[in-house]
Amino acid sequence: MTSLRQLVVLGALGAALVGCSGEDKPESNAVAKPAGCPSALKPEWQQLANRVGVPVYCPNWMPSPLDADINGQWNSSGPIVNRDKSFLVGFLWHEAGSGDVHVNFRGFPGKTAMPRCEDGKRSIPCFSDPRGSRKIGDKKVTVYTVSRDADQWHVTYLWRRNGTLYTVSEHVAPPLTFRKVVANLDRLVGGLELIEPAPSA
Question: How far from chain centre, in Å, is Cα 63?
């Protein structure tokens, strides 16, 4: 069940997003830059694409101090690949007393419906409280301010491509404000490179 703390925080998040939704749109377009997966990291993301059988998105920018090295020191989750080929790759920096920076990448091959999460005995949408859409490059992303499971307390950007649902999310926690997380996600999604799975031999 949603706690009082969650309701207070979510109300603040919603107000912040509404407050920045108009004036931040031109800025988000300005920070989007050409995609380009770092050459040193591309083999890792290529391996993930081959494993799940659908394209994956590799970022050319991550919020400091994170990088996109799946095998690196900031990796916190995975890649976790489920039987249905849905996947999670997470990156986390945490320092006691200072907060954390946590970014998750998800994909749901062959599925465009909202994924479901368990809440006690109930099955509920993993992402809710949509706060509008943003056009970032060739993607029309929907912004969700309530996320669950590994994305709890994250702002999530969700989009669909060729029958597959993708998400990128970031945790709203010190030292980051909600507005900064939204700016980070705009920049991150604007610099994603699509990595196609290699043709099978």
Answer: 12
Total structural domains in the chain?
Answer: 1
Q: Give the dihedral sign, CA 150/152/157/161.
A: positive
Cβ distance 33 to 193 under 8 Å? no
- Give the residues across from 194 on adjacent strands: 57
Tokens (6 digits) for 94: 């945490």
Return phi, psi of residue 54, to 5°: -135, 165
Q: Which domain holds residue 39?
A: 4-195
The structure's pTM equals 0.83
What is the average pLDDT across 108-119?
Answer: 95
Predicted confidence (pLDDT) per residue in 89-100, tens digit:
999 999 887 789
Within a domain: 95: yes
CA-to-CA distance for 60 and 195, rounded, in angstroms? 12
